[in-house]
Amino acid sequence: MIPANFDYAAPESLDEAISTLSQGGDDAKLLAGGHSLLPLMKLRLAAPSLLVSLGKVPGLSGIERSNGGFSIGAMTRHAEIADAEELGVTAHAASLIADQQVRNRGTIGGSIAHGDSAGDLPTVFLAAEGTVTAQGPNGERQIQATEMFKSFLTTAVGPDEVVTSVYMPALDGYGWGYEKFVRRSEDWAMVGVCALVKSNGGTCEDVRVALTHMGATPLRASATEEALRGQSLSPESIAQAAEQAAEGTNPPGDVNATPDYKKHLARVLTKRALMAATGG
Amino acid sequence: MAESVRVNVTVNGESRSSEVEPRLLLVHYLRDTLGLTGTHIGCDTSNCGACTVLMDGESVKSCTVLAVQADGAKVQTIEGMAPAGNGALHPIQEAFWEHHGLQCGYCTPGMIMAAADLLKRNPNPTEEEVRHGLEGNLCRCTGYHNIVKAVMAAAESMRSGEGVPA
After folding, report:
1. Which residue, among B45, B46, B75, would best test binding to A if mutated, counting the most A CBs under 10 Å from its CB?
2. What CATH superfamily is the domain B91-160?
3. Whole domain around residue A22: which residue ranges?
4. What ranges in chain A are assigned the alpha helix state H?
5. Which of A57, A165, A180, B53 lies at 20 to 30 Å from B161 by C-alpha?
6. How close A3 gets to chain B, by Cα (Å)?
7. Which ipTM was obtained for this model?
8. Cα–Cα dist A55/A130, whole Å
9. Predicted TM-score of the model (pTM)
């Protein structure tokens, strides 16, 4: 399987990358780690006329403490994130992505900008209420997680913008869990669930639950969150809240799972993720 | 027709320079342009791991990397594993031989390259960590049992600097 022909540019500065991308027109695409884009191109589901690689742009990789959280360079590989235990649920979810070879190439910026609802990091980003920094011809801007995912594989990042970093709050005081169901480790999640819980003397002060592959975009399980917020945390109250995890979702069926089965998985995995987040 | 691009890659310690089409995959560059056919193409969809090589020391699936992305990188393939000249094998190759970690052999180059990355990250893995670390590589013959044994033995030999334990 060979991609359709395209031109290739490997700019050595961010400014050059942005100008090359905006001059490249509608069919120009950025290339980060390439582990979502290249498979699509090999299947000829994507045929960009120009690929602008970020591989030689300096300063886009690495993890830094910043503003009570972590600023993660867009080109930081999943493998590096998985090894950074201080990132908590982000590191754990990154460690569950596909396999070592894929984690050695795939990047957090690429994953979130691609916005695949079956991807793990977009879900964690949504639950953690992170922020993306994007730079375009008109300068830099921040995009909140709640504004990021628009529709199937469509994000708020403009066609001539480059995601430069992803900010993840430190989430001090939150317990976390990320549960993912796959047949084989390399597969996309049939369903995944990220849960973050802040407990205050056994009462749920804050809770966030986000779902992987339960719709066209990653989703928050608002009914579960509402059912649990302010309640006393127990296996019973968690189980009851988790029963509402699939409420309002309309997951796509595929070769691995029917919509009903995915709703079942969402409930089961939400319970497990909440239990993990509360030390259960 | 897209404009071709010059790539400079160090492959198994040797500098190589070629004009390539941007769409040329790294695995095709290694096999067809450089003639290094030890790297196999299995699924061609980044699932099976047969095409695994090391790029700047890290395992990658070379069917999902463009040759142009390897510009400036050091690539190591199965041909570059054994020390040159004296006929000896790399300890991981030795261990696959000793423990019969293969049947048809198709997945073996990728298994060995993935094992090299695994043992670099974790020189003293448990059996479970070996199985987990090789989850990106599929073998349709062995049931993995002897592959895991071989990697465990290679780990021991590489730690002790002695030969592969039987």
Report:
1. B46
2. [2Fe-2S]-binding domain (1.10.150.120)
3. 7-52
4. 14-23, 37-42, 78-83, 89-95, 100-103, 108-114, 120-128, 145-148, 222-228, 235-242, 259-277
5. B53
6. 6
7. 0.96
8. 24
9. 0.96
